[in-house]
Every structure is written in structure tokens, then in C-alpha cells.
Design goal:
Number of domains: 2
Radius of gyration: 25 Å
CATH architecture of the largest domain: 3-Layer(aba) Sandwich
Number of strands: 21
CATH topology of the largest domain: Beta-lactamase
Shape: globular
Strand content: 25-35%
Structural class: alpha+beta
């Protein structure tokens, strides 16, 4: 584990690297300012780009303007994890047995322990079920305990989001299916539906007992949600008038550890193993390890998370990184603060704040100047370039993956009336320019938000303009290579 003193020492060594020499501002700066003015984003965009070969500024506009950067935050999380996690071991989930087996009956308990794997799926649970089945057990007299002590339980990434957004679930030491449950409906006659809530896999699928849905929500928001933290139950209701004849959608799960344990219990029952209760508990020291499930490589998980902008996965990665810095990690706020301090120390600036690891908050913010300093760090480039995806380049002939030997590796971020893009322009796969483009209109976001609509009025048109501006800036940057 990295001590606080060592953490501060190591990061402070690089805090002020990448400072641009006085007078090193290129004359083409006004090209970008003119472009941004024509886009109508003069007061709503923060932009900066630098030539990494010479440390010369290529362009800038409102570079000190603090704006939310949405999922561009995931770049910070990825580098934070890769620069502070020194083991690089895959995530693991374990099943233990405590007791004796007699006449096919386990006179004791099972213990299910997680270490934050954000990629565990329903089908992966077959490994644990088979390990019990292979012992000849048909009944468990005790309980199924789940041990989620390694990481704090988080019920929301951002509690201000509409409750039905599947990209805003809970998470913790034990996770399943990115902490989502599948809601399906099928109209059997007028006003009547068959509905189900399941944890589906390709081979396994089961219902859970602690999450319920009813169709009698006739007032207020389209979806209503309640959680009972004492009973660990989650209750949904939806107005059936908005349902089509047949359909499905993912809904978020808040109590991820209990949800996963409940799915495991139901699958054990489906396989003919009798077991009754679930309870939270720590694995006893003398218990026997039955089996361990390992995740894919962490770099592969990160690359996938950045490519598909997976909030829950990135939050879990951030929590795991913070756990290496502070073994007494107690919530997401603390973890986000640790990442903020790390970012501020390596950039030498205090203008950025992260409230979580995925960017799902308009309250998080940065500046293009801060991000320029971040992207210039050699250790940041080394960590990010292998996990960043290729970003399409838009030319007069359409979308292309490269212009000659020039490519773009970057991460975008989108929320209502918020858009960001940051990364590198590469020549023969080597980064030669670093850029950050952040745009937001928080006034329009506030004026047009509603608990009854998932897409605020005017947000799509605003986003289109912001994306067009991005593409034009990228093309002009490539023209400076």
C-alpha cells in the first residue's frame, strides 16, 4: 500500500513539468477563436492545444474557464488507476465454505467475497455453483453470507439523475451485470401486462426476490423508485400507459452486493441445492476457499470502459485505485477527493474538482489549461495511449480513421448541454499534439431540465452544434501538423 507521504512525494516531483515557455504562443491562435465565435460558443467553450514536440501553444480560447467535462473524466480515472495501482492483478471474487459435509448436507455456511470486479456476469456464477455441486451438496443448513468489506457500498453515482437511468447504479465490492436488472413487459390484453425483472445471462437467468415492479404509477414522474436500506429491498413503479405492446429496458440496481448474492442463491436453488437465507458477514479465518473467479486484464477492462463510456465500471476502477492509497476508504466522495488531489498535484493547478470517477455530474469541472498540463505528463501519456480508442476524423469526403499517418486518440463526454473531447493527435502512433475542448451551457441545462422528460428541450440541437465545432477544431489542428 502506498503511504500518504510517499504518494505526495511521488506526485509532487512531476507537479510542475510541462510548463510552457513565455512567448511560446503560436500565431494561429486566432484561427480557433474565430471558429468558436462562428459556432456561437464563444462564452461556452474552453479550448487549448499544444505541440508536444516543442511545447508551443497551437491554440487557446477561454482556457481558464471552469466547465463540467462529463465522461472525459474517465481519462483521469484511467490514468489515476494505472499510476497508483502497482499490482495490476485481475479482480477476483471468491466463494468459501465453513462447516462440515455429511449425507450431502453442508452443516455450515457459504461465504461469498468480492474485491470490486466490475465485470462479473450471471454466467460467471456457474463457477461457484459447480464448485458446490461437485462436493455432492444438495442442502445448506446455514446461510449464504456475502462479504463486501473490501470496498464501501455506493447506492448512486449521482443521486440527482432520474432514477431509471441504468448508467447510474450502485456499486461496491460485489457487482453483477454492471449492477443492472432487466425489466421486460408483454401486453396480454388491454390494460394488462406480464412483467418480469431478471438477471439474465447467455446460459443462466433468474429472477430476484428483493426487487419489485408494479404498473400503477399514475402521478408524477414516469418511473418512481424507493429503496429500503434496512430490508435491502428496491421497489419500482411505472405508468403502464407509456409501455409499448412489448419491450424491455435495463434498470439500475442500488444494493449491488445483496443483488449479486440473491442471484447466486436463486441459481443454487435452480440447480437443486436447497439454501434459505442471505446475510452480510465477514469470511471466517478458518473457512475453506472453494473457488476464485478472475476478471480479464485490467487494461482490457479500462479500454472497454473508455470505448463504451461505462460509468459503473469506471467508478469501480476509481474506487479500487483509491483503495490502494487509503485502506480506510469509506465512500465515493472520499475516493473522488483523492483523485482530485492527485490531479491537482501532477498539474500544479487547483482549478479542477471531481465529484466521482465517471463524470456523471455537472458539479465536477476542469479547465482546458489544467487538462493541457495533465495530457503533457509523460506518465499520463504512457498510461492513456494504450487504452484510448481511435476517434474518427471528419473530412469533406466523410468520416475516416486517419489522414495519411495522422490519427486521433481521445475520449468524449456528453451530458445534456455539456460536451467535452480531449486527447492526442498522433503521427505514426506517437502523440505530437495534445488538446482539450470543453463546452457547456449550464443556464440552458437548468432551464430545460424536468423530472418528466429524459431529454431536455433543445439539448439535441445544442449537442449537434458542439460536436460540429469539435470536428472543425480537430481538422484545423491536423492542418497544423
Amino acid at each position: 500500500m502506498l503511504s500518504k507521504r510517499k504518494f505526495i512525494t511521488l506526485t509532487t516531483l512531476t507537479a510542475f513539468t510541462g510548463i510552457i515557455p513565455l512567448g511560446a504562443v503560436a500565431k494561429v491562435t486566432n484561427i480557433f477563436t474565430s471558429l468558436i465565435k462562428k459556432s456561437g460558443f464563444e462564452k461556452n467553450t474552453s479550448f487549448m492545444a499544444i505541440d508536444l514536440r516543442s511545447n508551443m501553444l497551437i491554440g487557446r480560447h477561454n482556457e481558464k474557464l471552469k466547465l463540467p467535462i462529463a465522461s472525459v473524466t474517465k481519462m483521469v480515472t484511467a490514468s489515476y488507476y494505472l499510476n497508483n495501482n502497482y499490482t495490476f492483478a485481475p479482480f477476483k471474487t471468491e466463494l468459501f465454505l465453513d462447516g462440515i459435509i455429511k449425507d450431502d448436507v453442508l452443516r455450515g455456511n457459504l461465504y461469498f467475497k468480492g474485491y470490486g470486479d466490475p465485470t462479473l456476469k450471471t454466467d460467471d456464477l456457474s463457477l461457484f455453483i459447480d464448485s458446490v455441486k461437485n462436493l455432492g451438496i444438495t442442502k445448506i443448513e446455514g446461510k449464504l453470507f456475502y462479504d463486501n468489506s473490501y470496498l464501501p457500498d455506493v447506492n448512486y453515482i449521482n443521486k440527482n439523475q432520474l432514477p431509471q437511468y441504468a448508467y447510474n447504479p450502485g456499486m461496491g465490492a460485489i457487482n453483477l451485470n454492471e449492477n443492472r436488472i432487466l425489466f421486460k413487459w408483454n401486453r396480454v390484453e388491454k390494460g394488462k401486462y406480464n412483467i418480469s425483472l431478471t438477471a439474465p445471462g447467455l446460459k443462466n437467468s433468474t429472477k430476484v426476490t428483493n426487487i419489485t415492479m408494479d404498473l400503477e404509477n399514475y402521478k408524477g414522474p414516469v418511473y418512481n423508485y424507493k429503496i429500503d436500506k434496512n430490508e435491502l429491498t428496491e421497489s419500482w413503479s411505472v405508468n403502464k400507459r407509456i409501455l409499448s405492446r412489448k419491450g424491455s429496458r435495463w434498470l439500475p440496481v442500488r444494493e449491488s452486493s445483496y443483488y449479486t448474492a440473491e442471484v447466486l442463491r436463486q441459481l443454487l436453488i435452480d440447480r437443486g441445492i436447497e439454501i434459505r437465507h442471505i446475510e452480510r458477514g465477514v469470511v471466517p479465518k478458518k473457512s475453506k476457499l472453494l473457488c476464485t473467479h478472475y476478471s480479464d486484464k485490467n487494461t482490457s477492462i479500462l479500454k472497454n470502459a473508455l470505448k463504451y463510456s461505462k460509468n459503473m465500471v469506471t467508478e469501480s476502477i476509481g474506487l479500487a485505485a483509491s483503495r490502494t492509497i487509503s485502506s480506510n476508504l469509506y465512500d465515493l466522495d472520499q475516493s473522488a477527493l483523492l483523485m482530485t488531489r492527485w490531479f491537482r498535484m501532477i498539474t500544479g493547478k487547483q482549478n479542477s474538482l471531481f465529484l466521482n470517477h465517471s463524470g456523471l455530474s455537472a458539479g465536477s469541472f476542469s479547465t482546458s489549461e489544467d487538462f493541457r498540463r495533465f495530457l503533457m505528463q509523460e506518465k499520463v501519456q504512457k498510461s492513456l495511449l494504450p487504452v484510448l480508442k481511435l476517434t474518427p476524423i471528419y473530412t469533406s469526403k466523410g468520416k475516416v480513421s486517419s489522414v495519411g499517418n495522422i490519427t486521433v486518440k481521445a475520449k468524449s463526454g456528453t451530458m445534456h448541454y455539456i460536451r467535452g473531447l480531449a486527447g492526442y493527435i498522433c503521427k505514426e502512433d506517437k502523440p505530437i499534439l495534445a488538446f482539450s475542448i470543453f463546452s457547456a451551457d449550464l443556464r440552458k441545462r437548468k432551464e430545460n431540465s424536468s423530472s418528466n422528460f429524459e431529454r431536455p428541450r433543445g439539448s439535441s440541437a445544442w449537442l449537434s452544434r458542439a460536436v460540429i465545432q469539435e470536428r472543425q477544431i480537430i481538422r484545423k489542428l491536423i492542418g497544423q501538423v
